[in-house]
Amino acid sequence: xxxxxxxxxxxxxxxxxxxxxxxxxxxxxxxxxxxxxxxxxxxxxxxxxxxxxxxxxxxxxxxxxxxxxxxxxxxxxxxxxxxxxxxxxxxxxxxxxxxxxxxxxxxxxxxxxxxxxxxxxxxxxxxxxxxxxxxxxxxxxxxxxxxxxxxxxxxxxxxxxxxxxxxxxxxxxxxxxxxxxxxxxxxxxxxxxxxxxxxxxxxxxxxxxxxxxxxxxxxxxxxxxxxxxxxxxxxxxxxxxxxxxxxxxxxxxxxxxxxxxxxxxxxxxxxxxxxxxxxxxxxxxxxxxxxxxxxxxxxxxxxxxxxxxxxxxxxxxxxxxxxxxxxxxxxxxxxxxxxxxxxxxxxxxxxxxxxxxxxxxxxxxxxxxxxxxxxxxxxxxxxxxxxxxxxxxxxxxxxxxxxxxxxxxxxxxxxxxxxxxxxxxxxxxx
Length: 430
Description:
Layout lengths: L14 H20 L3 E2 L5 E3 H9 L3 H6 L2 E3 L5 E4 L4 H10 L2 H4 L3 E10 L11 E10 L4 H17 L6 E6 L6 H12 L8 H9 L10 H10 L9 H16 L5 E2 L11 E8 L8 E7 L3 H4 L7 E7 H10 L11 E6 L1 H18 L3 E3 L6 H10 L4 E6 H6 L1 E6 L5 E5 L3 H4 L14
Parallel strand pairs: 1-5, 7-8, 12-13, 12-14
Antiparallel strand pairs: 2-4, 3-4, 5-6, 6-11, 7-9, 9-10, 10-11, 14-15, 15-16
């Protein structure tokens, strides 16, 4: 019978790797809560028009990458390809604005896009990020950017660059797009086929092109949107820069950075790291002051960012910051039926009273094989219990690190262990 395998662009996260994910998620939870952000979880699929209206029909996500289908009721549904639109939908649906003038939310979630799978980018992937609703002021931009910037140092990633730009208010967009088309159309034959289509349908997206030749042409000929923003937009952006300067956060003005989604307004930003190589983006985000209204809510200013967890893991692995984690503190080596029953009882007591990770042998292997398994599991101690030990009411406790072995009375066994259950974070290794 033919073996069934995972679908292209998806992968299994096995137990030892899952421990790394748990550590990363724990850091994210702690970091966000320290900054006053509360977790939000949205469904895995939404109505398709949430993304066509919110993200933009001409974006690559909507036009090429979404997993959509029509269900038995005739409704078009989509596995969520990004998280801002679902969070906005939830914000509106549950009237969070009526409960507080400002809402700070964060998420850790799975997303789905039919892209070409590559290192750090799969068709099912995972992101964490934040969305802050309610404040139109530059200090909210600075807070969100600072969180996006500083969380990487918690993971031990210091080699990062913050790219910053402003694409202004929506009011300036029609005139700017007219100028952009007029300027680039005479050179259209030199641009790629995709850029030519974008010039006709959504000209701002030409800046998203990955072609080096197209990027060169943009450098040579394209008017930059930040040079066309209003004086009010410029004042907002200058204040964001001033606040970042005050916090000691270095940034680089990147006039071509418009971000790949249509809902952005004013501030846009991206954080990159050379440890990732050519695909160097760690996270990106920006302000989206019209999206809540666009999706049926009241006009609400907002800003956020999203970061890829696979990209984070890739960056950590290149720094050799992640090591395989042990899956047990104690391995119970059992020799005989009677000792098995007592071992199961001891294991439960140690888990309950000491919070220790305890594995009990269930394959009836030899002493040598069980000790080898204890070592493979990364256990700190092996507790050996056979008929002879049971008769003497003792257990042999072997320290797997230094090889020391002691006979400890069974009624004193719990007191013998003082293993910390605090798991180290990836950053501790850097």
